[in-house]
Amino acid sequence: MFYQFDDDQINLSGKSILITGGTGSFGQAFVRKVINTYEVSRCIVFSRDELKQYEMAQEFPVVPGGPIRFFIGDVRDAARLELAMRGVDYVIHAAALKHVQTAEYNPFEAAKTNINGAENVVTAAIRAGIKKVIALSTDKACNPINLYGATKLCSDKLFIAANNIKGSRDLRFSVVRYGNVMGSRGSVIPFFLNQARSGSLPITDPAMTRFNISLRDGVDMVLWALEHALGGELLVPKIPSYKITDG
User: Fold this and answer.
1) pTM of the model
2) What is the largest CA-CA distance in the chain?
3) Considering 15, 98, 132, 140, which one is annotated as catalytic?
4) Is 140 a catalytic residue?
5) CA-closest candidate to residue 19, choices 11, 8, 7, 31
6) How many whole angstroms separate alpha carbon 167 and alpha carbon 70?
7) What own/partner pairs with CB < 8 Å and gap ≥ 24 does 244-247 have?
8) Which 8-state DSSP code applies to residue 9?
9) Both ends of the chain: CA-CA distance in Å?
10) What value does the CA radius of gyration of the chain take, rounded to a whole number of Å?
11) What would the pLDDT profile of 93-149 be if each residue is shown by its tens digit?
């Protein structure tokens, strides 16, 4: 990786953090790291899935005086976002429709979540007085050939451009763009492990390369950006590429 992260490099003591899409694989790993490492005042999980929030609450129960909070909401709902962000210091934007085939078949829905949702996060952050926003992106946003990548490229540009409209506010927007998160829900690795029983791996093109990053490295990179980003950056880790057929 191009950065060196140490838990002592960032001080989140007393800070309030909100993560959109917080019940996803990244969100759960991020919340686990933050809750177990730092004495934050609040860690708000913002997502639209009641069942996933219930399941997540089994590991992170809401107790009086405790930091964890669960907010039902959708990034398409600007008013709900602004309400959830009140009194928050940092926002991690992880919510998105992430599956290539889903976006191709439901293009308007992908645009509403990935593009309009990004705009809503920007607007709500400005109005709520947030200090820093780190938006998660994907390697598919680089030279996109599918709608998912195109919507995330647009989202990235919205967050970078947001630094030009914040005025004199002490607010910084940055983007973290990395590859496939190994073992996350819906990723190719659990699918391949399941397919291995059949003795064949269905791949689109044997020449295709992929970029993988672990959940731990993904979380550490976002925390690094939270401490060091000045606003306007699109941060990309230096990770090796490989072919699925390599071995």
Assistant:
1) 0.86
2) 59
3) 140
4) yes
5) 31
6) 31
7) 244/188, 244/192, 244/201, 244/203, 244/206, 244/208, 244/210, 245/203, 245/206
8) G
9) 22
10) 18
11) 999 999 999 999 999 999 999 999 999 999 999 999 999 999 999 989 999 999 999
